[in-house]
Amino acid sequence: MLRAYVPVLILFLVAFGFAAFAVVVSYLLGQRKPTRAKLAPYECGVASPGYGKTRIPLRYYTVAMLFLLFDLEVVFLYPWAVTFKKLGLFGLIEMMVFIGILLVGYIYVWEKGALEWD
């Protein structure tokens, strides 16, 4: 039974060997001439406007986390929509409770002012 996995194992070994070989050869043969321009942060071909370690406001992270929280709920809505006919009235009520809980959370976040940038 394990013989069927031998080709996969060989493929992984060849891929790992090639990657390791490429890294080692480039390290041994490559030139190391660090200059100020090479060590500068690169931002899509545009010169960096300032110091790269500036503080980002906490509000940015809060909005990003809230976006992920409310955006990922679509993952739960899609399977429900696909099996809606099988679930019947129970599935509809269950999803309305789910959406209600999300709505309460959204109103709470809105009232706390977490979505305002000013």
Q: What is the number of domains? A: 1
Helix and strand element order: HHHHH
Q: What structural class should be given to the helix and strand makeup?
A: mainly alpha
Rg from Cα: 26 Å
Question: What's the assembly state of these chains?
Answer: single chain
Mean pLDDT: 86
- Please write the CATH class name: Mainly Alpha
Q: Which architecture does the CATH hierarchy give at level 2?
A: Up-down Bundle
- Give the low-pLDDT segments: none
By CATH, the topology is Methane Monooxygenase Hydroxylase, Chain G, domain 1
The best one-word shape is flat
Number of helices: 5
Major sheet attributes:
none
> Roughly how many Å apart are the termini?
64 Å
Helical content class = 55-70%
Beta content comes to under 5%
Give a count of the beta strands, DSSP E runs of length 2 or more.
0
What does this protein look like?
This protein has 118 residues and is mostly helical. It has one domain (2-112): Methane Monooxygenase Hydroxylase, Chain G, domain 1. Helices cover 68% and strands 0% of the residues. The chain has 5 helices and no strands. It has helices at residues 6-29, 36-39, 58-71, 74-82, 84-112. Helix 4 packs antiparallel against helix 5 (84-112). The protein starts with 5 loop residues before the first helix and ends in a 6-residue tail after the last helix. The model has no long low-confidence stretch (mean pLDDT 86).
